User: Fold this.
Amino acid sequence: MSAMSPAPRRRASLVDSPLLDVEKIRQDFPILRREVRGKPLVYLDSAATSQKPQAVIDALVRYYTTENSNVHRGIHLLSEEATQEYEGARTKVQAFLNASSPQEIVFVRGTTEGINLVAGSYGRQNLREGDEIIISAMEHHSNIVPWQILCQEKGARLRVIPMNDSGELLLEEYERMLGPRTRLVAVVHVSNSLGTINPVEEIIRLAHRQGVPVLIDGAQAAPHLPLDVRKLDCDFYVFSGHKILGPTGIGVLYGKASLLDSMPPYQGGGDMIKSVTFEKTVYNDIPYRFEAGTPHIAGAIGLGAAIDYLSAIGLDRVAAYEHQLLEYGTERLSQIRGLRIIGTAREKAAVLSFVLDGIHPHDIGTVLDSEGIAIRTGHHCTQPVMARFGIPATARASLAFYNTKQEIDVLVRGIDKVFEVFS
Ligand code: PMP
Assistant:
């Protein structure tokens, strides 16, 4: 089998988008200047983790160089400055999500911890035997397993919204599932393995009609789409800093103040209390009630810098540019004989998952790596998605606003090479 990948009809230049000055943007990301295996790095794995602009790296260095100190407790200047920066980052996240108040922003380790927090606190408090939680067929394991653990503990039941062959959720089925036993709906905004952008506004509206709260896993949406939690009217929204240009180990749980306020702590320790005696502990107000122990101060500050950087470009422009890239990539990959794109929803973010006839995705990844192209292969922590499509794994190129059409051309040439090697 050989790949048929004709040259693009028009020549793609590095900077051929009036939307963004991508060449200038790329200069902000020092890692994009490095070579991998003697070739210029083509980084197409942003869904796993994004690269970091110099502004974020500088914010981390500045914090550790000039302000390093613990927050909330110190009377000295450094602690005051660190606290100001940490709380300033919370306000930046609030503005980024258009939340009503900084109280609604809880710093966590990432999406995974945010979901576990809601399951362990809200879920534990509100679920009884026979109750139901609705998730979808395209959830990341981190939006499946915490609910399974909770259901097991409570004798509750997990229900799953099915999807069609394009990777779109069947909303009629979802509507039928919603009922008097439903206690929570937890759905991914953008699928990491298929790229589907789910109609979360409609999903939330339908749940609210029944008085059911909704958690949205925004790990893959926050880096790519303008967000407004008040417009969405979601009850919880979670995302990871490292996927939106920030550091690892920091993430955000947004929760409506009324809900967070009604929830018991998730972990106990310093900072989450007002007073402690051996007889009785009084818990702190939100959001501190959910931030036990010394937080990831540098991480929050780095995330704040990432949000500043991204907001200066504008998520509208990011989304529009990435959509152009996705359309170009989809067109080019569709021309390759023996390649099948997995995930062809009408509403998609910049994820190109694919399989090649007779070639294991890991072999695709290895050959592409030898060309300096970083993609991800495997089940992408969505084994049920792989089972739904009857495949063990996919190769996934995931794009960001610092990618170019030229890099997609390099990917296409790399896939040609994969066919050559394995034909
Ligand atoms: N949900 C989705 C949709 C994701 O893509 C990911 C990360 N791949 C997660 C949750 C988990 O994020 P983290 O590992 O940063 O907690």
